[in-house]
Amino acid sequence: MKKTFLLAAATLFSAYVQAASDSLTIHRISDDIMLNGTCYNSLRTLCKTIGHRISGSPQAAKAVIWGQKAMEDAGADRVWLQAVDVPKWVRGKESLKLPLGPNNSFISVPMLSLGNSEGTKGKVLKADIIMVNNFDEFKNLTEAEVQGKIVFFNYRFRQDWVNTFAGYGDAVKYRWASPSIAAAKSAAGVIIRSISTGADDVPHTGSMHYSDTTKKIPEVAIGNQTADKLEEACHSRKEVTAVLQSECHMDGTAPSYNVIGEIKGSEHPEEIVVFGGHLDSWDVGEGAHDDGAGCVQSIEVIRTLKALGIHPKRTIRAVLFMNEENGTRGGAAYADSALKNKEKTILALETDAGGFSPRGFGTEGMKPNQKMKIQGYAPLFLPYGIYDFSKDEGGADISFLGKQGVPMMGLLPDPQRYFDYHHTNADVFEQVNHRELKLGAVAMTSMVYLISEYGL
Amino acid sequence: MKKTFLLAAATLFSAYVQAASDSLTIHRISDDIMLNGTCYNSLRTLCKTIGHRISGSPQAAKAVIWGQKAMEDAGADRVWLQAVDVPKWVRGKESLKLPLGPNNSFISVPMLSLGNSEGTKGKVLKADIIMVNNFDEFKNLTEAEVQGKIVFFNYRFRQDWVNTFAGYGDAVKYRWASPSIAAAKSAAGVIIRSISTGADDVPHTGSMHYSDTTKKIPEVAIGNQTADKLEEACHSRKEVTAVLQSECHMDGTAPSYNVIGEIKGSEHPEEIVVFGGHLDSWDVGEGAHDDGAGCVQSIEVIRTLKALGIHPKRTIRAVLFMNEENGTRGGAAYADSALKNKEKTILALETDAGGFSPRGFGTEGMKPNQKMKIQGYAPLFLPYGIYDFSKDEGGADISFLGKQGVPMMGLLPDPQRYFDYHHTNADVFEQVNHRELKLGAVAMTSMVYLISEYGL
Questions:
Q1: Which of residues 247-286 of B touch A (CB under 8 A)?
Q2: Could you tell me the pTM of the whole model?
Q3: pLDDT tens digits for B196-205?
Q4: Residue B75, φ and ψ in degrees, nearest 5
């Protein structure tokens, strides 16, 4: 009895000492990043000297070189490029004119073709608009009603939902699937209300998809304010016409790279903790929140551990994935390579939800005991405003590792502003706050440290 | 035994039903504000048609009229103005020239005189600068070293501290007390590094104070980037001179008002829940986060309860306090009136920390059982990202009620960005996110509802 008690007390004491030590390590990580972190200046360089960087573009190629150098400067033991062929989509010129000017005159409105879509080959497409609020309303239309028209899918982002990522998941099907659904009834094109929380007129691009069986008709997005006006016009007028002209098209594939940097584990080098964001962006704005933030935070993990002389027990590997936006070929190539090389990836952690104040970590594909282990770390993160370990969330790039059975995690920043900027010309460096970005890096570094120290 | 069990079960069941019902009510509050809330547009009006509004200014007078109308539009049962005399401080013209140009030439730098300070009466004050990093360093200087000089207090905001309000509390004494401390050794003036988290060159104003026994010397703030350059110059050069010219001065008092709107309680009208923000701002920017946000959120509480047909059991009263920034005369006048009228204020809740995502509520001056009751509500707020009920925090305006023994609370938004904008020309409407602002209103409305429903 006495022995058992002493043993229990010793175990408890040791757990207490460990937690106290981890708490101090995380404190050191936080202090170093908040005072000496380079992620904010690094993001400025990426955004202001390279800018947006869609897969296959010259800017994406420059970003690869930038990433490689940044990993080296951070002090990674080894930095390498992993070849990956990426689809190339080219926007070209585009315009949408709607009769929303004085006396219903036609005016050019802010618009963006959706990524991967085909345009009008530069020709003028003039057609009447038919508006529906959702797919159910569209189902009730006959082919005769739709034929030759431009369908306006006027679905609204659920602003009443507190978690904007749930709202995005709900609304994004209109971006993804509308053209094929409309083409099945012989529509000539599609306009969607942007997948946007913005109280503004900023159009949002993002990837779409054609089914194999339907015609590839153009799809463009308009901002919320233009959508409101178009909605009003569709309600109040007998006929509303649109004039669309666009050149966007797929242009084969191009060679590109994932950028990888690692620190070899001191005790279990064969066990690998993978973490990262994606290096490509859409061809608008500067890809600051999506996902320059995730890239510079991942590089900061390496810099911080090196700067503090913390040698991880397991190998930690930062990956800047290429082509998350319109193909996820980088994520697929990384997972293929890991399988081929029989690597033992113990966890994959993605940061691709913006450089906002971190509020939690999602988990996905974990065994209950693994999830419990992660959730057991929650008290260590509370002083940094990180409290939510309840959500089921991994990431698009790491989902290919997930399919191989690798447990996944995703950094969860405050989600309120992300879908104001996501995939737009407004996603620029100025919209990223230095302290919020750095706190995200603190979260990433601390979690990578814990997993590398204790495994999963 | 069986009876006791049944009684306990019935009590538990009733508590469960109550919590479920509160959860639904808060859900309704959230949905209504996120979809129909007027606080964001209301803030736009305040910021863009009135702008900054220092106590005693024509803009502050306009803001009173705006607030009165906004309370009426929100549906308050009764709206009234409460007279309060406020100190009037006038900035006038001001400039600071430092030898930070090419070949050490003098250039005008971004600067702001501190609120309530006296300037140079429009005359040129040219004097050598002596730099210290903190009060301890200043203590080691002799009067001969300081006499006739401008003291540069180069104290840095603690960027390593995660809670910026702690950092503010730590640094603000340099703004508040430096002139009197420097004047005691016959300094001619004071320059401070702004009390700022900004990675920029924006100067921050804010109130300062003269002791009764020392000369009233001028105090000005410079942005972090200019402060870095000045620091470098003071380190590397034998002599660094400043040229200051300013007209700021106190200009007596002026009549003004608190704006008050209430809904009478249906069951305990004599018990009053007071909540609010402050209507005045500094004479720069638009006072958007500080504290236009708190004003429109408080008005939103009234609008929402009325719109949803929720009749509070206790009287709820929104107060837009005047003169928080440089005198807190509005808060004092309100508390005086409450005492004189023998009002029974059961709680005072302030929102004056910016229109950012809400993360918690602070409590102050509460009995343990009251604090436990408030903390018991925490699970109801978790779905809205509000998790922190641990901090000791009330508010400046309600502190006068606190001195009378009234329990206090403060809304705690995410604190990372606040001190980038606080008291600056950058505190404008564009820096407020509509969803973050509205979520703060959801938090306020829900807490006011719970207190009005169950008392304290």
A1: none
A2: 0.96
A3: 999 999 999 9
A4: 100, 20
